Amino acid sequence: MNQNKIAEKLYQNSVNVRQDNLERLLVAYKGDYYFNLVDRLAGNKDAVIVDGMGGTGFFTVLLAKRGYKNLLVFDLSENNIKAARALFKRHKIKARALVSDIEKIRLKDNFTDLVVVMTSLHHLPSRTKALRECKRILKPGGYLLAIEPNKLNPLALWRHWRSKPSVNEKLFSSGEIRSEIAPIFPEYRVFTHKFGYKIIIIGRKPVRRKIR
Ligand SMILES: C[S@@+](CC[C@H](N)C(=O)[O-])C[C@H]1O[C@@H](n2cnc3c(N)ncnc32)[C@H](O)[C@@H]1O
């Protein structure tokens, strides 16, 4: 099975659940902590936001409903991206959807103000290339926001084990991701949330100062 097929298989079940429950999620997420973080990092509703490894685009839909106007989702799976386009149509949302590998993102340098990666980095065998690519597509001063389950939290660990993870899928701790992000994003913050259930990862692309 190639990587694309594995990605699709992995995500099939959660796609169905999440799409069926989208309306409920829209209400549940209103005023949610994560959206407040997005608001703070994006700065304003005209900011360009990329939803990386975004599956069928449900988070992009939520961002659009929150008033964001410049949205793009990408995912490795063609089927997920097809589903995302259908979802955007159903919700009358103008957002781009792109088939792309996070390790080689098909977007130009300095493209976006914010990259969000929701519960996906632990699907990658190594995060170095992905983090470098996220930095490349960020504008100077732009942010990466990633939210991941915490390997050191018993509930997160149990849920992960119950989901029958593939070989590539490995939870990590905040200490482990800190050592991966630090060499790439000199300005970063990593902290846990929800009694240690989630790890919040924020990286900022440095602003280059002109030499006078
Ligand atoms: C757990 S799902 C999360 C999807 C979405 N972020 C969400 O929270 O609903 C992981 C997603 O990563 C995608 N994926 C896996 N490997 C990828 C890669 N190398 N580049 C881009 N997307 C990838 C899968 O197709 C899948 O849609």
Helix content: 25-40%
CATH architecture: 3-Layer(aba) Sandwich
Mean pLDDT: 88
According to DSSP, the number of beta strands is 7
Question: With helices defined by DSSP (H or I, 4 residues minimum), what is the helix count?
Answer: 8
Domain module count: 1
CATH superfamily placement: Vaccinia Virus protein VP39
Distance between the termini: 55 Å
Integer-rounded radius of gyration? 16 Å
What summary fits the major beta sheet? 7 strands, mixed
Amount of beta strand: 15-25%
What structural class do the secondary elements suggest?
Answer: alpha/beta
What is the CATH C-level name?
A: Alpha Beta
Residue ranges: pLDDT <50 for 5 or more in a row?
6-17
Tell the overall outline.
Answer: globular
Q: Name the ligand types.
A: S-adenosylmethionine
Structure description:
- This protein has 212 residues and is α/β, with parallel strands linked by helices.
- The protein has a single domain, classed as Rossmann fold, CATH 3.40.50.
- 39% of the residues lie in helices and 23% in strands.
- The protein is built from 8 helices and 7 strands, in the order H-H-H-E-H-E-H-E-E-H-E-H-H-E-E.
- The chain has a 7-stranded mixed beta sheet with strand order 3-2-1-4-5-7-6, with helices on both faces.
- Strand 4, helix 6 (128-137) and strand 5 form a beta-alpha-beta unit.
- The chain is globular, with a radius of gyration of 16 Å.
- It starts with a helix and ends in an 8-residue tail after the last strand.
- Mean pLDDT is 88; it is low at 6-17.
- Bound molecules: S-adenosylmethionine.
- S-adenosylmethionine binds at residues 7, 11, 53-55, 58-59, 75-77, 80, 101-103, 118-120, 123.
